[in-house]
Amino acid sequence: MLGELVIARESICADGTSRALGAGAARTSADEQLTAALVGAASAARSGTVVSVDLFYETDGAPRADAHDDALAVEMEAATLFALGAREHVPVACLLTVSDTFTADGERTRIDTDLLRTAAERMGAVALAALGD
Predict the structure, then answer these.
(1) Backbone region of residue 3 per phi and psi (left: phi > 0; alpha: psi in -120 to 50; beta: other values)
(2) Superfamily of structural domain 5-130
(3) Where are the domains of the chain?
(4) In 68, 72, 85, 118, which residue has its Cα 20 to 30 A from 29's Cα atom?
(5) pTM over 0.90
(6) Tens digits of residue pLDDT in 31-56
(7) By the 8 A CB rule, do 25 and 75 touch?
(8) Which residues on adjacent β-strands are paired with residue 53?
């Protein structure tokens, strides 16, 4: 649903950057403690697996067809950030807002400005609460 908050517990590495940074596996994980703090601060958010990709769309503008069934969302940075955090021993978590949805035939619906602003404010409030203000 547009504007919904999603907390990434892990990311499927369908990108090149996370692998180049040493992710090495098919999936890379967020920091458990920091993620638990986000989950505790955002009771209405869904949490689980996301998939990180290099490109959102195919060359014809269609959404990527290689999304994984167990992924809550498709995004472009989580796997890279999780890989960097693991390599540098820095806790990393990921809080996302659903900004686009697609029907089964590829029709895209984009979040409007007001809902995006509201979601961004909720994300900020959740992050502050998770970090203990």
Answers:
(1) left
(2) Nucleoside phosphorylase domain (3.40.50.1580)
(3) 5-130
(4) 118
(5) no
(6) 999 999 999 999 889 999 999 988 77
(7) no
(8) 14
